[in-house]
């Protein structure tokens, strides 16, 4: 065993996780026709959906891991019918952004979001802004909001977290933690596809087929990028007790990507009162709630919550997180 230990130490000294290099560019964040330019000169392509009449609210949507802004096409089109303007952007490292597949520098995803909201809130005074995050996007929102509570209380009205990625190491089995630790130190550029795991992300088979055909959806993921995501999930779960604004958490009982246990742990830590958190549980929902066959219900519930025409049922939390349900 001591030989194995020495080999592991030697290999850990040879390989390090790779991330996108920090930029030396400094510009004023601004919107262009189809991209947002961040303070370090990085372009984030976006999709913009505008209602025909004055918007009652605005949404900034953050996609999940290996996905991109197309994930919210159906959602944003549905929101427009409720007079909710919607912007969905490709987070750096995903979609049509530069250095796709490499994890961004520490804290940069959160800075990108903060700059986005700053520019949008200046251009739309009086229109409440909501953040919507699916999976990894939800984790980015949780971590961003924990870093500057007063800023977010001033600039946004609330957040919607759809199956947020909070599967932190503290909730993972030991063999997953150690296998990632070893892999990222021995072959960080290895790109497993995840095929053969048998994970069903949605009941919408046509949507899953479209994702497989889409070249902008990443199919093979670098191990060091998975490492970056795992670090983000650690911070997201740890940040869940510091949500400074109202929140709505959405989760499907058939989610095979983010287990129920960390979701319930997150909900148990979230504040009540100021920064009230509501919860909706979908018995037939999978991980990709925005692509599921019942997505229209998710869109309607979200829009009604933002426009304050819907109240949530407290029994949903008991149904999802009772001890016999968690397993």
TrEMBL record:
Gene Ontology MF terms in the entry: hydrolase activity
Domain of life: Bacteria
Matches recorded under InterPro entries: AB_hydrolase_1, AB_hydrolase_fold, Hydrolase_4, MAG_DAG_Lipase
Swiss-Prot/TrEMBL keywords: Hydrolase
Gene3D superfamilies found in the cross-reference section: alpha/beta hydrolase
Classification via Pfam families: Hydrolase_4
Domain Serine aminopeptidase S33: from-to ranges: 54-293
Signal peptide range: none
Name the UniProt record assigns to this protein: Lysophospholipase, alpha-beta hydrolase superfamily
Species, as recorded: Candidatus Kentrum sp. FW
């Amino acid at each position: 065993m001591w030989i194995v230990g020495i080999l592991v130490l030697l290999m850990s000294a040879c390989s390090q996780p790779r991330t996108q290099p920090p930029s030396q560019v400094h510009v004023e964040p601004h919107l262009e026709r189809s991209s947002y330019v961040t303070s370090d000169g990085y372009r984030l392509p976006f999709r913009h959906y505008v209602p025909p009449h004055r918007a009652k609210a605005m949404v900034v949507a953050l996609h999940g891991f290996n996905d991109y802004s197309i994930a919210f096409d159906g959602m944003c089109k549905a929101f427009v019918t409720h007079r909710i303007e919607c912007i969905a952007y490709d987070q750096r490292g995903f979609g049509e952004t530069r250095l796709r597949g490499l994890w961004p520098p520490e804290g940069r995803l959160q800075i990108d979001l903060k700059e986005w909201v700053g520019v949008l809130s200046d251009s739309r005074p009086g229109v409440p802004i909501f953040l919507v995050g699916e999976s990894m996007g939800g984790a980015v929102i949780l971590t961003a909001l924990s870093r500057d509570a007063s800023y977010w209380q001033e600039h946004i009205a609330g957040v919607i977290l759809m199956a947020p990625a909070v599967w932190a190491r503290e909730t993972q089995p030991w063999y997953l933690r150690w296998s990632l630790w070893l892999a990222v130190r021995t072959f960080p550029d290895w790109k497993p596809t995840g095929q053969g795991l048998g994970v069903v992300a949605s009941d919408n088979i046509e949507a899953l087929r479209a994702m497989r055909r889409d070249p902008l959806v990443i199919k093979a993921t670098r191990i060091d990028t998975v490492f970056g995501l795992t670090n983000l999930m650690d911070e997201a779960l740890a940040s869940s007790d510091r949500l400074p604004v109202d929140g709505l958490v959405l989760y499907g009982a058939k989610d095979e990507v983010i287990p129920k246990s960390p979701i319930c742990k997150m909900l148990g830590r979230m504040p009540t009162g100021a920064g009230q958190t509501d919860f909706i549980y979908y018995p037939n929902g999978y991980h990709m709630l925005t692509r599921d066959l019942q997505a229209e219900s998710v869109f309607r519930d979200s829009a009604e919550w933002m426009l304050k025409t819907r109240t949530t049922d407290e029994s949903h939390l008991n149904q999802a997180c009772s001890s016999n349900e968690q397993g």
